[in-house]
Design a protein that fits this description.
This protein is α+β, with helices and mostly antiparallel strands. Helices cover about 45% and strands about 15% of the residues. The protein has seven helices and four strands; from the N terminus they run ααββαααββαα. It has helices at about 5-25, 45-50, 75-80, 85, 95-100, 125-130, 135-150; strands at about 55-65, 65-70, 105-115, 115-120. Strands 1-2 form a two-stranded antiparallel sheet. Strands 3-4 form a two-stranded antiparallel sheet.
Amino acid sequence: MFRRSFPARLALAGFLLAGTAAGLRAQAVNVDQDHLALYGYDAVAYQTDQAAVKGAPEYTAVYEGNTYRFASAAHREAFRIDPAKYVPAYGGYCAYGVANGHKVKVDPEAFRVVEGKLYLNYDKGVQKKWLADIPGNIAKAEKNWAGLKDKPRD
């Protein structure tokens, strides 16, 4: 059997723990296969244009390790100044899903901005359910998010 010295085992354990922590952190934000938050949609446009607008590869910003795209340099700058204002609730996972104890993907075009915060839904059908009781669903999601944040997506 291969034996490692104590310092080598300690270094390996630290490496494995760091990798696990990075994986968990990555789960807190819904990213696509290209590691883009909001599936490459412009986080600022949801609030300024009240529309789901695809971002462009030349206008990106990184916030908390996640890459966001924007439709313009002005939107990118607005995001850089105050990213917390524009990032979606619940890491960009479905707000109705989080309210019901699940982390699920979203359709970036099924959204609603409520009191300055972006909420996304799985699709337009699920969004209708979420819209039926926005305050109640937000209250439930707020309670559930801490326990779901670092869990894998459903």
